[in-house]
Design a protein that fits this description.
This protein has ten helices and four strands, in the order ααααββααααββαα. It has 473 residues and is of the alpha+beta class.
Length: 473
């Protein structure tokens, strides 16, 4: 074999050597053919961008601010940059490393270890124990990746970068959901506060009339005292709702990356419309759409690659090294021809005995891979459950809203009739108060159900992986 062909062998091994460890294959996961509660539609609610999903321009603006200013988003973005830098570090090991070095030493050698030598009797010794050395070199090193250790490390780092980016997207689509949920809760409390204040004014007016009737001897004092109690009960709801509103504004402000403060409002809660049927798409698409599923898969890919990296530790490492430079005890002669120094040659590091450390490293990497596979399957199953939960919540909340609205209509008529009966001298004031109490409870329940319906739609949008696959134009 010629010298040229011999020189090609290490390079060929370095570039195309064997790759230890298993190649990645997505583990089988049972995927339902269709959703239990969804309509048969190939489209999906999550196909809409978040700026298209929300009908309120104020809410769209709040989400936009949160995506730009939220501290959790900034933390996630910083972690992506860390992972990107780690990938550069891992990939750099596949290329030769060239370093420049320079040194100056001033030292004295032991005359016991290096005794002076004289060639001529009576002549001065040629050995000088004290001296100085100037040295500057270019040092080259290149590890032959025969077993794929560096390639597997790069593969793992690339997967971790993609996992960190998916984690950032998970933070984003969770943030969109949280902002919308808090906003709808805020609108609900606004409506509840308006209803409660209206009820307070109504009961205050009823109390005024009852007091007049009591002075004229038409109504007993018991009716007055009952009305005073009901007025106090309704009045007591107002400060509690005002507290909740302020706390919701504070929580929403933090999501926006701001200090606690007031939050602007757009449309009223009752002005929103919710579609009767919501397309959910195919369950199989969820594996590609949801960022938390993608994150879990990339973590699984990284763990799988670490197995090959660990197995490579069983085999020798071959590093080609070389150095070229100049060295001299006289600075003026440092860059002359005789001052040249150079060296070249391979270095081989082979494991002989390590008390089972390398084998334990492989076992550890395989256990991490098994953990990542289990986590991936758990994330996928959780994703399917969240979609099914959100679909049934959307459908049943819609049914509840219809019945709640019927209940409010009925109780408003009951209040009107009991008041007519009471002031006609047929009914009792207790019937009036009881009907009024039931009406207030039905109105507040309807508002909560309306809010729950909107929140369920937001949760469905989140469960389907909406809000991150597209960016506003």
């Amino acid at each position: 074999m010629t010298a040229g062909r011999v020189a090609v062998v290490p390079l060929a091994l370095a570039l195309g050597g064997c790759l230890l460890g298993p190649d990645y294959a997505r583990p089988p996961v049972p995927v339902p053919e269709r959703w239990q509660e969804a309509v048969d539609d190939a489209g999906s609610l999550a196909d809409q961008g978040w700026w298209q999903f929300f009908e309120d321009p104020v809410l769209v603006d709040l989400v936009r601010v949160a995506r730009e200013q939220n501290t959790d988003v900034r933390v996630a973005a910083a972690r992506v940059e860390q992972a990107r830098a780690d990938l550069v570090v891992a990939g750099a090991a596949r290329f030769p490393q060239l370093d420049a070095s320079g040194s100056y030493t001033y030292s004295r050698l032991s005359e016991v270890s290096f005794p002076p030598i004289t060639n001529t009797p009576g002549a001065a010794p040629a050995f000088k124990p004290v001296g100085q050395i100037y040295r500057t070199t270019l040092d080259l090193s290149f590890e032959l990746d025969l077993w794929g250790r560096i390639r597997r490390a790069t593969e793992a780092a690339r997967a971790e970068l993609l996992a960190s980016d998916a984690a950032r997207r998970t933070v984003l689509f969770t943030l969109v959901s949280d902002v919308a949920t808090l906003y709808f809760n805020l609108l609900e409390r606004d409506e509840e506060l308006a209803v409660s204040r209206h009820t307070v004014e109504t009961r205050r007016e009823s109390l005024r009339i009852l007091r007049l009737r009591f002075r004229e001897g038409i109504s007993p004092e018991l009716d007055v005292r009952r009305a005073e109690g009901e007025l106090a009960a309704a009045t007591n709801i107002v400060p509690d709702l005002e507290r909740q509103i302020r706390q919701l504004e504070n929580a929403l402000s933090v999501l926006l990356g701001r200090n606690p403060g007031p939050i602007p409002r757009g449309r009223r809660l009752t002005a929103y419309t919710v579609p009767l049927e919501v397309p959910a798409g195919l369950p199989s698409v969820l594996l590609e759409r949801r960022p938390d599923v993608r994150q879990a898969e990339q973590q699984m890919i990284a763990a799988n690659a670490r197995i090959g990296q660990a197995k490579a530790a069983f085999f020798p490492r071959i590093v080609l090294t070389g150095a070229y430079g100049v060295e001299s005890s006289d600075l003026t002669r440092l860059f002359t021809g005789p001052a040249q120094v150079w060296s070249v040659g391979p270095a081989i590091i082979a494991p002989i005995f390590n008390a089972g450390r390398v084998g334990a490293g492989v076992d550890f990497a395989e256990a991490q891979r098994d953990e990542a596979v289990a986590q991936y399957r758990r994330v996928v199953q959780t994703a399917f459950r969240e979609v099914e939960d959100a679909l049934i919540a959307h459908r049943k909340n819609r049914e509840e809203v219809i019945e709640d609205q019927k209940q409010v209509t009925a109780y408003r008529e009951v209040v009107r009739l009991t008041r007519l009966r009471y002031f006609s001298g047929i009914g009792t004031q207790f019937e009036v108060l009881d009907a009024d109490r039931q009406l207030l409870s039905a109105e507040l329940a309807t508002l909560r159900t309306l809010s729950d319906q909107l929140v369920a739609l937001v949760q469905l949008y989140k469960a389907l992986g909406g809000g991150w696959t597209n960016e506003p134009g």
